[in-house]
């Protein structure tokens, strides 16, 4: 995940601009008007990391947490491989290489070698989806996320906001 964050925000960067365009439908070129800054970008990314990926490591017997983490991996692959590229009409988007290659391989390994559907009950599937959605909303759409995006003093740098090519 750290490599994924680096690709999205560091090199080549540009995930905030792409996210504003694709996920929020805004063509605003001024990054100071996005309600997005380094504070809420890192809040969302790190909270999602903790709640979706770290929590299952410490609570491996809570089956829905692991299932939810794997669902999010595949959501990352689909978003970076299909959604972002189609909406931008591009072949690459910030986070695509690590999102598709690393997360895709981890998810593929899990579902082909580790996953055992016989230990899951319907409740695990429902809770996994609910947890996935709740974490996504809390980390990237909650009032706290938007409030953090308006806190002064955490501006997005040029490369973080727009990537190597503006």
Beta content comes to under 5%
Q: Span between N and C termini?
A: 25 Å
Structural domain tally: 1
Q: What's the main sheet like?
A: none
Which blocks of ≥5 consecutive residues have pLDDT under 50? none
Derived from helix and strand composition plus strand pairing, the structural class reads mainly alpha
Q: How big is the Rg?
A: 16 Å
* DSSP summary: helix tally: 8
Average pLDDT, all residues: 93
What does this structure look like?
The protein is mainly alpha-helical and 166 residues long. It has one domain (2-160). 70% of the residues lie in helices and 0% in strands. It contains eight helices and no strands. It has helices spanning 2-10, 15-24, 38-58, 63-88, 96-114, 122-140, 143-149, 158-162. The longest helix is centred in the middle third of the chain and has 26 residues, at 63-88. The model has no long low-confidence stretch (mean pLDDT 93).
Secondary-structure map:
Layout: H1 2-10, H2 15-24, H3 38-58, H4 63-88, H5 96-114, H6 122-140, H7 143-149, H8 158-162
Helix pairs in contact: 1-5, 2-4, 3-4, 3-6, 3-7, 4-5, 4-6
The gist of it:
The chain is built from eight helices and no strands. By secondary structure, it is mainly α.
Features:
70% helix, 166 residues, mainly alpha
């Amino acid at each position: 995940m750290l490599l994924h964050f680096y690709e999205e925000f560091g090199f080549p960067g540009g995930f905030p601009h792409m996210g504003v365009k694709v996920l929020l439908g805004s063509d605003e070129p001024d990054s100071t008007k996005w309600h997005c800054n380094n504070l809420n970008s890192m809040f969302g990314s790190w909270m999602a990391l903790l709640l979706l990926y770290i929590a299952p490591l410490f609570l491996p017997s809570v089956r829905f947490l692991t299932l939810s983490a794997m669902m999010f991996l595949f959501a990352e692959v689909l978003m970076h491989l299909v959604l972002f590229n189609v909406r931008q009409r591009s072949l690459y988007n910030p986070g695509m290489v690590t999102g598709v290659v690393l997360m895709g391989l981890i998810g593929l390994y899990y579902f082909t070698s580790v996953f055992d559907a016989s230990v899951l009950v319907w409740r695990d599937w429902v809770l996994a989806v609910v947890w996935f959605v709740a974490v996504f909303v809390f980390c990237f759409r909650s009032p706290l996320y938007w409030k953090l995006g308006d806190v002064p003093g955490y501006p997005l740098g040029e490369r973080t906001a727009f990537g190597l090519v503006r």
